[in-house]
Amino acid sequence: MSTLKEKLPPVLTNIGTLGPFIALLVACLFFATQNERFLTGGNLSLVLQQVMVVGVIAIGQTLIILTAGIDLSCGMVMALGGIVMSKFATELGLPPALAILCGIGVTTLFGLVNGLLVTRIKLPPFIVTLGTLNIAFAITQLYSNSQTVTELPTALTALGNTFAIGGTEVAWGTVLMLVLFGFTWFVLRETAAGRHVYAVGNNAEATRLVGIPTQKVLLGVYVIAGAFYGIASLLSVARTGVGDPNAGQTENLDAITAVVLGGTSLFGGRGVVLGTLVGALIVGVFRNGLTLMGVSSIYQVLVTGILVILAVATDQLSHKSAR
């Protein structure tokens, strides 16, 4: 009979996995002592709203990093998706639902292109996505004429609306983000497709030899990641109320930071997507807490950089000790 430890993913049986949760708890306790507003329902809801776009992008980024890849284009692809759905709805007059699908379709297409270049031409993911980052940025600026798209249909901004829970306003976009994290966690943990993603990240050649189509798994991961970027596009539009061609400037690095802080290994095959949610919350809590303390935004960037270096260093040391 299998034990509970055997049923859990290997990463959960390692005490180091508790690191992100402990870091989040310590950060919350620290900022609670510095400002009485920090632990209020309204402020915690605001933190969730602030991380919902990066959080959804980071779901796709987690899938890619689990296969030992990386996607530098995610932020700019997300921005392009937002511009497409905004302009299709306002200038072309498409029904909002169709405009949203077109935006998600564009981001998914970029995921397909990334996946084909990685799997068919065997180009390194870093180089491929660095190239598509610039392509997505150029298309976004050209198509939008570097102008913000305003006067959007209410359907495009509906996820930015809120509802009350115990007197605290919670955005519908936050709920969608949490549902997506839960769904992805279930797929990765409970389905054969999810286990294949981990297997490819652990050892792609050994996985291929046992009959798993590794190239199809990799291609599927990039395509699905592209779809997540499209959903993040909608959340970005809903939160800001406009189609912003300058969105996505920092989201790629923020998403990678969330994944690494959440305990997913850059070497692939090890990590839990719920850890990515914790990683995104760590970044959000630090930025929100430092803002409440009146700390300059440049120091917030500095702290984020230090956190990601520490997380990568921990991952490197853990990988060496496991060899």
Note down, in words, how this protein is organized.
- This protein has 323 residues and is an all-alpha fold.
- The chain has a single domain (16-29, 36-322), classed as ABC transporter involved in vitamin B12 uptake, BtuC.
- It is built from 14 helices and two strands, in the order αααααααββααααααα.
- The chain has helices spanning 4-7, 19-34, 41-66, 74-90, 96-119, 125-144, 154-157, 172-190, 192-202, 204-209, 214-240, 251-261, 273-292, 297-322; strands at residues 162-165, 168-171.
- Strands 1-2 form a two-stranded antiparallel sheet.
- Helix 2 (19-34) runs parallel beside helix 13 (273-292).
Blueprint of the fold:
Elements: H1 4-7, H2 19-34, H3 41-66, H4 74-90, H5 96-119, H6 125-144, H7 154-157, E1 162-165, E2 168-171, H8 172-190, H9 192-202, H10 204-209, H11 214-240, H12 251-261, H13 273-292, H14 297-322
Antiparallel strand pairs: 1-2
In short:
The chain has 323 residues and is mainly alpha-helical. It has helices at residues 4-7, 19-34, 41-66, 74-90, 96-119, 125-144, 154-157, 172-190, 192-202, 204-209, 214-240, 251-261, 273-292, 297-322, and strands at residues 162-165, 168-171.
Keywords:
single chain; 323 residues; ABC transporter involved in vitamin B12 uptake, BtuC; globular
Largest sheet: 2 strands, antiparallel
What is the multimeric organization of the chains shown?
A: single chain
Return the string of H and E elements.
Answer: HHHHHHHEEHHHHHHH
C-alpha end-to-end distance: 29 Å
Arithmetic mean of pLDDT: 90
Q: Note the total helix count.
A: 14
What percent of the residues sit in helical stretches (DSSP H or I)?
over 70%
Shape: globular
What is the count of β-strands? 2
Rg result? 20 Å
CATH class: Mainly Alpha
